[in-house]
Amino acid sequence: MEKDLLSQQIDESKKAYDAQDYQKLVDKAKPKPKVFRNALAAFFVGGLICMLGQGIGMGFASAGLSSKEASAATVATMIFIGAFLTGIGVYDDIGRFAGAGSIIPITGFSNSIVSAAMEYKAEGYIFGVGARIFTIAGPVLVYGFLTSTLIGLIYYLFR
Question: Where are the domains of the chain?
Fold first, then answer.
């Protein structure tokens, strides 16, 4: 009995030792993230997307649209641009280069919807695209509605 317990403890320590050695090998082989480069790319691309949106909004405003109309037209245009770039495969390249900078709310949201639709289009329009189009964007919508409802209630109660 004592021998079984001792051999079991040895086996467990050997497994732990093997796991530690393996983790050390993984840490050595794993490429180190280029944090500064990634942050700079995200900042640059995110800023460009925001600057593009601002320019589009200013263009709509100078065309005679009111502030609300120009904002709505800008949002629609940015959604279209994000969806179009996703459809032709360019947004994936932007995402690989910019990382988090490519998930600016409007264009990133349209990218998540269109990429899910493209992924499941082979399964058909109803059971593929229709059923799974919001797999990525669905939680964003749910929590967005929930948060806006709570903020609206808080505003109503403490106004």
Answer: 38-158
